[in-house]
Amino acid sequence: MLDDFNRVVLSKDPLDEEDSDYINASYVDSILKPNAYIAAQGPNEYTISDFWRLIWEQQSFLIVMLTKVFDFIRVECCQYWPMEEHKPEMYGLIEVILLSEEHLADFVIRTMRIRKPGQLVKRKVKKTRLVPRNQYKEIEDKKPEMLDEDEQEQTVAKESIDRFRESKRSRLSVATRATQESLRSHSTNSVKNKSKKASFVTTTVYDEIEYEEEIEEDDVRIIYQLHYNSWSSHTCPFPNSILQFRRRVRIYQQEVNKDEGDRVGPTIVHCSNGCGRTGAYLCIDSNLQLAEEDGLY
């Protein structure tokens, strides 16, 4: 591996020995970005929990694995992820759940969920809510509804007229006739005036407002492992195959950057010992990034 100036230093475990901050992993720059990768040795049975500490502390969401677990009769790398889907396993203080596996011709894509029980994180989430707004809408209608006062006046007028009609008096006094004419005139004018009035209907309108709210929740992360299993030790990969794999890695990098933003740490790349295949892949990836930047690829 490289010298100590770019060595990844883990946080010390207070319950472990003094050198618990060590892991065989180093930061590697790409041509366009410093510390774009972490080149690491494949975990063995003693370093699996340290490897998951590395992923957690460096906030890495993407793992590129370039070796088989078994190459003929030799163990190249320990299986550091759960055997069964949706069955949580603890690696040190990190809980790992395998969510899915997608098997393709030359590589496998695994989606995993990790968390550190008891560790909370504050996040700003966007929410929406409906805020009522009163809006008075003027409605022009050929037959508008009567207002309450007009209805009461018309009802009183009709009742008065009916009482006078039922009266058995043969003659009506002048005052009674005047009252009857007044009531009839008032009733007629009320209907005429009512037709000229515009009624107002109250409708409730809701405005959707977007706002941010800070919440505290478990720090749960979704990470992706792209496992290229067609590159045996001391051999060369098929060019089309490794380029297709690299394109898929780039797609996942873009999706992770879009979802997590500034939170995304370096991409972890490992083979068996973290040198040969890891270094070859980093050279391919960084130079193709430069060619893409210059519009040559």
TrEMBL record:
Residues 243-297 form the Tyrosine specific protein phosphatases domain. GO terms for molecular function: protein tyrosine phosphatase activity. Pfam families: Y_phosphatase (PF00102). Residues 1-297 form the Tyrosine-protein phosphatase domain. Coiled coil: none annotated. Gene3D superfamilies: Protein tyrosine phosphatase superfamily. InterPro entries: Prot-tyrosine_phosphatase-like (IPR029021), Protein-Tyr_Phosphatase (IPR050348), PTP_cat (IPR000242), Tyr_Pase_AS (IPR016130), Tyr_Pase_cat (IPR003595), Tyr_Pase_dom (IPR000387). GO terms for biological process: neuron development. This is Protein-tyrosine phosphatase-like protein. The lineage of its organism: Eukaryota, Metazoa, Ecdysozoa, Arthropoda, Chelicerata.
